[in-house]
Design brief:
With 441 residues, the chain is of the alpha+beta class. Helices cover 63% and strands 12% of the residues. The strands form four sheets. It has a four-stranded antiparallel β-sheet. The protein has a three-stranded antiparallel β-sheet with strand order 7-8-9, with helices on one face. A two-stranded antiparallel ribbon has the order 1-2. A hairpin with a 5-residue loop joins strand 7 and strand 8.
Length: 441
């Protein structure tokens, strides 16, 4: 009868723990990073017919081996790799879209102003002495300069913005490194198969997910589940042996971002931090390209205007001053100072202006520049779409193993409730049988 009581007791203890585990699963069904848990149960041998040989074993109850997380390390690693690629593409695309917006005609009006300048020049060929058309010609030049200044200011703001985003990302990355080392300390002290160990493993995986989404990292684990984290590119240690090595960020004068680890370059080709670095390089290239365009346009248009004569017969003045987009300024001129004429014709210089329009004139060059940016953004968008699809697929495969399915948990809950009731009934039967035997004496 004592065996029967023992069987019932172990059943009550095991199934009560199983019900508690299912309750944890249901309560954390929507908790990010939570991996479904199950209780590992095993049969307890009750006895045998010989001391050294178990020819016949009678049931002795059920034993709890521990709490087991439903995870697949290969699927987890694949999800982290694809997540890093997706975050890199998404971070880059976000800033590429902003650059495209900063250079668009809706934002700065450069393309419209260039078209207006040439259209007004064409109109002046028919009526070179018209003061209204002369004033419109000068206004178009002023709009061009203002447009370049607006574009330069917006690109400068974008450069500062991506630097600030990267700084925040580096800070979060280093914070996660420190938190991961604290989890390592907990894992080395946690008992195998306990709920505490499972919770620490969940937190470890959550931190590794975040770190992998930010930069290229590789992880190895010891027998306790504690992690040693290294940079994928160089193999330099980030977390391990009780030591945490944070990364640092440097922003160059032109806004380009770079990272270092322990004073050495941190080669990083994945994660949001890599996306920020690529975006900063693109913005720096666009800022340099905008300055070049502003200088070229000013020189080309100034040369054309200075080749003519104004209404008073004086040589034409430069329409622009400044050598960069941010410093480009329209010269203050009166309508009479518009150099529409040449020495032989009252509209000769405006005719020459019209003849400039072609494959290499400022208007066409600027349109080509915008098209190049649009193509770069479209390419980044395609890369983001592909990386997102890949990451979603990897995450879904991982979730098929790790996520909590409430329908399954409901079925398991019913099963273990019935098992718990059966264990309780076993104890009741043992008690009733014992009382019957004792009362018959």
């Amino acid at each position: 009868m004592s065996d029967l009581l023992g069987i019932g007791y172990t059943g009550l203890r095991a199934y009560s723990k199983a019900l508690s585990t299912i309750g944890d699963n249901i309560a954390n069904a929507q908790t990010p990073g939570y991996a479904r848990r199950r209780l590992d149960l095993t049969e307890v041998p009750g006895g045998s017919n010989m001391v050294l040989y178990r020819g016949s074993i009678t049931p002795g109850g059920v034993d709890i081996k521990g709490v087991v997380r439903s995870v697949d390390q290969w699927l987890i690693a694949d999800a982290r790799i694809s997540s890093g690629d997706s975050e890199r593409a998404a971070a880059k695309l976000d800033w590429m879209n902003r650059v495209e917006s900063a250079l668009s005609d809706d934002s700065n009006g450069i393309k419209t102003a260039l078209t207006k300048l040439y259209t007004t020049a064409d109109q002046l060929t028919a009526d070179p002495s018209n003061p209204t058309l002369r004033a419109q010609f000068l206004q178009a030049a002023s709009d061009i300069a203002a447009g370049f200044q607006t574009a330069a200011n917006r690109l400068n703001s974008l450069s500062e913005g991506v630097s600030a985003a990267a700084t925040a990302g580096v800070s979060q990355f280093n914070t996660n490194l420190g938190a991961l080392e604290q989890v390592n300390l907990g894992l080395r002290k946690a008992r195998e198969g306990t709920t505490n160990q499972a919770a620490l493993l969940d937190e470890r995986d959550r931190l590794l997910d975040q770190l992998s989404s930010q930069a290229g990292v590789s992880a190895t684990f010891d027998s306790h589940g504690a992690v040693t984290l290294r940079a994928t590119g160089s193999g330099d240690m980030l977390v391990g042996g009780g030591v945490v090595t944070p990364i640092a960020m440097t922003t160059a004068a032109d806004g380009r971002i770079s990272y270092t680890l322990g004073g050495s370059p941190f080669a990083n080709a994945t994660g949001s931090l890599a996306g920020y670095a690529e975006a900063s390089n693109h913005i720096a290239d666009q800022r340099a390209g905008l300055d070049t365009k502003a200088s070229q346009f000013a020189a080309q248009i100034n040369t054309a205007h200075q080749a003519g004569l104004d209404a008073n017969g004086n040589p034409g003045q430069p329409l622009f001053t400044g050598t960069t987009a941010a410093t480009l300024t329209a010269t203050t001129l009166t309508p009479a100072q518009v150099a529409a004429a040449t020495s032989t014709s009252t509209n000769g210089n405006m005719l020459a202006f019209g003849a400039m329009r072609g494959a290499n004139d400022p208007e066409a060059t600027w349109s080509s520049h915008l098209a190049t940016q649009a193509q770069a953004t479209a390419s980044a968008r395609a890369q983001d779409a592909a990386a997102t699809t890949r990451a979603d697929g990897a995450a879904a495969a991982r979730d098929n193993v790790s996520e909590v399915n409430l329908d399954n948990e409901a079925a398991e809950l019913l099963r273990f409730q019935q098992a718990y009731s059966a264990a309780a009934r076993t104890i009741q039967v043992a008690r009733e049988t014992m009382q019957t035997l004792l009362s018959s004496l």
